[in-house]
User: What shape does this take?
Amino acid sequence: MQTEVSFAKLHDDLFFNRKSFGKTLEPNIHGGLKMIYDDTARELLVTWQNKTAHIPSTNIASYCVGEVEDRKIHQTSAPMVAGISSAQVESPFGHVFEGPGKGKTK
Assistant: This one.
């Protein structure tokens, strides 16, 4: 009997198809990853980019049965800063004389 797996944790890292997946296998993080646990062979079948890896049950720490949920991963971005900033500093007070007004008061 074969069961669809949505998450798996391994004892050792999985290096498969020229990619290191680490110890945690999550289809939401690794796009296109499909996992099926085969009860008769006692193996986890991991398919990625049309290649399949057979992981014996002795290497599986835990796994969750079920279909993979579509989760959107939120990406954070750097805050928008007003003005011009550069990596080069001309003097310790360079930030005072940059931007509008050039350090002069009204």
Residues 2-65 form one domain.
